[in-house]
Amino acid sequence: MVKRLVDFVAASVGLMVTGPLMVVVAIGIRATMGSPVLFRQRRPGLDGRLFTVLKFRTMCVDRERERQSQFDEHRVTPLGRLLRRSSLDELPQLINVLRGDMSLVGPRPLLPEYLPYYSKREYLRHTVRPGITGWAQINGRNRLSWDQRLALDVWYTEHRSMLLDLRILYLTAIRVLQRRDIDLDPKTSLLPLDQERSRSATVSR
Questions:
Q1: In the structure, what pLDDT confidence band is assigned to residue 110 with cuts at 50, 70 and 90?
Q2: Backbone dihedral region of 47: left (phi > 0), alpha (psi from -120 to 50 degrees) or beta?
Q3: What would the pLDDT profile of 18-28 be if each residue is shown by its tens digit?
Q4: Residues 6+ away with beta carbon under 8 Å from 108
Q5: Do the beta carbons of residue 44 and residue 153 sit within 8 Å?
Q6: Neighbour tally for 110: CB within 10 Å
Q7: Beta partners for 103?
Q8: Rounded to the nearest 5 degrees, what angle is found at the Cα of 47, between the Cα atoms of 45 and 152?
Q9: Interacting residues of 20 by C-beta distance below 8 A, sequence separation 6+
Q10: In the chain, at which residue ranges do the beta strands (DSSP E only) sit?
């Protein structure tokens, strides 16, 4: 209950403070990429229940380029790349926090098609609300393997506290300002978790 109250108050203040910036970003997206301004996608949250996560759109909607590229990163626009590198694309998730879908701190919400591929222990990440930032994000972020990311998510669920959350928020701010551990190169991108583990299961047979 205390964490939920802190989330609600902090998200309310955050939206008020960043509101003007979000308006500027929205205008920039509308002018360079058209509509919609927001990217919406269903993700599993607390107890695996699906909710709609919100982000600023960073990729162009171009079916021809989409067919020619197997990587979403090839469709990221210059503005979208800036938003990703600065993490400004995540700001609309403050609305998710207000709604109670997310927390400021917690495991990042991943795709629903990954659910069957978690181990029983890894599924513990869904015993807490997903977060805008989390323990994995300050300990390597995009440069971690799936096994490492999920292990860090589980570690957080087993050691979570307000003091740990404050530490994660502080270190997140440092990482964002330093632009550390952000890898947008499609050549180094991980395979989606379902593909990686399906492939591993096939090889091990």
A1: very high
A2: left
A3: 999 999 999 99
A4: 130, 131, 133, 134, 136, 137, 153
A5: no
A6: 20
A7: 131
A8: 70
A9: none
A10: 38-44, 50-56, 103-105, 131-133
What pLDDT, in 10s, does the model give residues 44-69? 999 999 999 999 999 886 543 444 44
Report which residue type is found at 9.
V
Beta-bridged to residue 43, according to DSSP, are: 51
Predicted TM-score (pTM) of the model is: 0.87
Look up residue 84 and give its two tokens.
């990703």
Distance between CA 145 and CA 150 in Å, rounded?
Answer: 9
Tokens of 204: 């091990």
Q: How many helices (H) and strands (E) does the chain have?
A: 7, 4
16: Cα separation from own chain's centroid: 22
